[in-house]
């Protein structure tokens, strides 16, 4: 596990409130964003994120569990989050991660992944101010590395890494679902498939399952931190 | 599964009454805190009723199961195989009852064992009782079959099987955790280790993590049923 992160580097991240404010600024909105079809102008998601945060509540057992974990010697104390507002996975999880941090008094700091342009290849310090962090916390799958977001890295008080949550909870088989939703239906032209697939995907983000997965992510994090504590 | 076989199961209320009955208490049971067989059984009926009263789904879990139940071919019935001596059953059964209530699903509970506790392998399906169901819905792991409980099998109205939830949610790495709790600490003799482990396991079952896993079980079921609906 990494011990590269320093107090000073961590302190350069944004609090949740600062991040939400930042997402609505001209500086952020001028950066390239993304849709299902690729690079696109950014939308202002600040109101959505703030509203979602207000609506998000941990369950009583989740709140009690993270408070117990934070009180243990070597328990979680800091959370580093890498996020981009154009990502529906980030919009789903970041407000709940903030609630998790609040429930236990964890210090949460958010870093954006991209620079002015949407990341297309490996992160590079020439293109993104936080490439050092993204390179540190890349997702590995089938021998390849991906700059998947969100990343939420949990550290103890001394910045020893305890657990890393990446992209979505294990019960959400996103690739399978998205491939099905965006797959061609009989009689559709490619353009119709793209338009209908996009509508169906965004409709799924409006269903209660979006929040079920956010809840599942919190359970996954809590359970992993508990296991780490018991096995330590 | 036939409508007639299904109808022989107990409702949640009927099950809770049954487990407090002399007929059930006379059956052989098990206590994980002592890691030994117990006869007569402990009466868990008050505990289960209190746990059901306290168990609440989130608004999103409730909305999700209603959405699923309203789909053509959506879940309508649940076969649940349970034993009150199992802490996994005591964790999940009250929440499964809540899930069924929220979606208007018909839940029927069947006990696994006869007078003696099944220690390993599978029963002969012709042995009577619920051996037919236990054999049909056995847990397969590493090429072997186990009569694991709880098993919750979700069916459409016409008894087409949709999904099977077994034992505990994927995020709860039970064997690893219980193994660590039961391992002798430096300086412990076997009897001391057994007693200390019993206390540690009892504390774990009283901790908020028990409910975190119960709710994670519900999220896992909802996500799997949603995936089934999208993919079909």
Using brief descriptors, characterize the structure shown:
heterodimer; A: 232 residues; alpha+beta; four-stranded mixed sheet; two-stranded antiparallel ribbon; 8 strands; globular; B: 232 residues; two-stranded antiparallel sheet; 10 helices; 16% strand
Structure annotation, total helices of chain B: 10
Question: Greatest contact pair?
Answer: A-B, 33 and 34 residues
Tell me the major beta sheet of chain A: 4 strands, mixed
Structural class of chain A: alpha+beta
User: Stretches of chain B where pLDDT falls below 50 for ≥5 residues?
Assistant: none
Uncertain stretches of chain A: none
Provide the spatial order of strands within the biggest beta sheet of chain A: 4-3-7-8
Q: Looking at the structure, what is the overall shape of chain A?
A: globular
Trace the largest sheet of chain B across and list its strands: 4-3-7-8
Topology readout:
The complex is a heterodimer of chains A (232) and B (232).
Chain A: H1 7-11, H2 16-23, H3 26-29, E1 32-35, E2 38-41, H4 46-55, H5 60-71, E3 78-83, H6 88-104, E4 107-112, H7 131-136, E5 139-141, E6 144-146, E7 151-155, E8 161-166, H8 174-181, H9 190-204, H10 208-231
Parallel strand pairs in A: 3-4
Antiparallel strand pairs in A: 1-2, 3-7, 5-6, 7-8
Helix pairs in contact in A: 2-4, 4-6, 5-6, 5-10, 6-10
Chain B: H1 3-7, H2 12-19, H3 22-25, E1 29-31, E2 36-38, H4 45-54, H5 59-70, E3 75-82, H6 87-103, E4 106-111, H7 131-136, E5 139-141, E6 144-146, E7 151-156, E8 161-166, H8 174-182, H9 190-206, H10 208-231
Parallel strand pairs in B: 3-4
Antiparallel strand pairs in B: 1-2, 3-7, 5-6, 7-8
């Amino acid at each position: 596990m990494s011990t590269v992160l320093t107090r000073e580097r961590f302190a350069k991240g944004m609090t949740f409130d600062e991040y939400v404010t930042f997402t609505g600024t001209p500086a952020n909105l001028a950066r390239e964003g993304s849709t299902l079809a690729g690079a696109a102008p950014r939308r202002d998601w600040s109101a959505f994120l703030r509203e979602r945060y207000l609506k998000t509540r941990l369950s009583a057992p989740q709140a009690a569990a993270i408070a117990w974990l934070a009180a243990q010697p070597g328990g979680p104390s800091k959370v580093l989050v890498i996020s981009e507002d154009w990502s529906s996975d980030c919009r789903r999880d970041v407000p709940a991660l903030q609630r998790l941090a609040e429930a236990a008094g964890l210090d949460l700091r958010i870093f954006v992944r991209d620079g002015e342009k949407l990341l297309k290849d490996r992160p590079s310090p020439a293109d993104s101010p936080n490439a050092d962090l993204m390179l540190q916390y890349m997702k590995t799958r089938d021998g390849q590395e991906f700059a998947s977001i969100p990343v939420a890295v949990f550290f103890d008080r001394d910045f020893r890494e305890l657990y890393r949550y990446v992209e979505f909870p294990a019960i959400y088989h996103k690739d399978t679902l998205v491939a099905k939703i965006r797959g061609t239906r009989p009689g559709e032209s490619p353009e119709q498939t793209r338009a209908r697939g996009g509508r169906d995907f965004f409709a799924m983000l409006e269903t209660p399952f979006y929040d079920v997965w956010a809840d599942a992510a919190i359970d996954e994090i809590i359970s992993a931190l508990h296991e780490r504590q018991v096995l330590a | 599964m036939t409508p007639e076989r299904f109808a022989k199961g107990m409702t949640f209320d009927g099950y809770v009454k049954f487990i407090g009955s002399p007929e059930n208490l006379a059956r052989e049971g098990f206590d994980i805190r002592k890691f030994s067989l117990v006869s007569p059984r402990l009466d868990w009926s008050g505990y289960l009723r209190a746990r059901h009263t306290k168990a609440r789904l989130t608004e999103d879990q409730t909305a999700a199961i209603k959405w699923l139940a309203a789909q053509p071919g959506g879940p309508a019935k649940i076969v649940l195989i349970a034993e009150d001596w199992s802490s996994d059953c005591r964790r999940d059964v009250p929440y499964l009852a809540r899930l069924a209530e929220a979606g208007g699903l018909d839940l029927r509970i069947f006990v696994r064992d006869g007078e003696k506790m099944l220690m390993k392998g599978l029963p002969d399906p012709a042995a009577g009782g619920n051996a037919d169901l236990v054999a049909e819905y056995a847990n397969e792991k590493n090429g072997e079959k186990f009569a694991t409980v709880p098993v919750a099998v979700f069916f459409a109205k016409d008894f087409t099987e949709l999904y099977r939830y077994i034992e505990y949610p994927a995020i709860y790495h039970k064997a690893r955790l219980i193994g660590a709790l039961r391992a002798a600490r430096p300086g412990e003799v076997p009897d001391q280790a057994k007693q200390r482990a019993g206390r540690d396991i009892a504390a774990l079952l009283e901790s908020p993590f028990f409910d975190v896993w119960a709710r994670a079980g519900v999220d896992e079921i909802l996500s799997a049923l949603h995936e089934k609906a999208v993919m079909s």
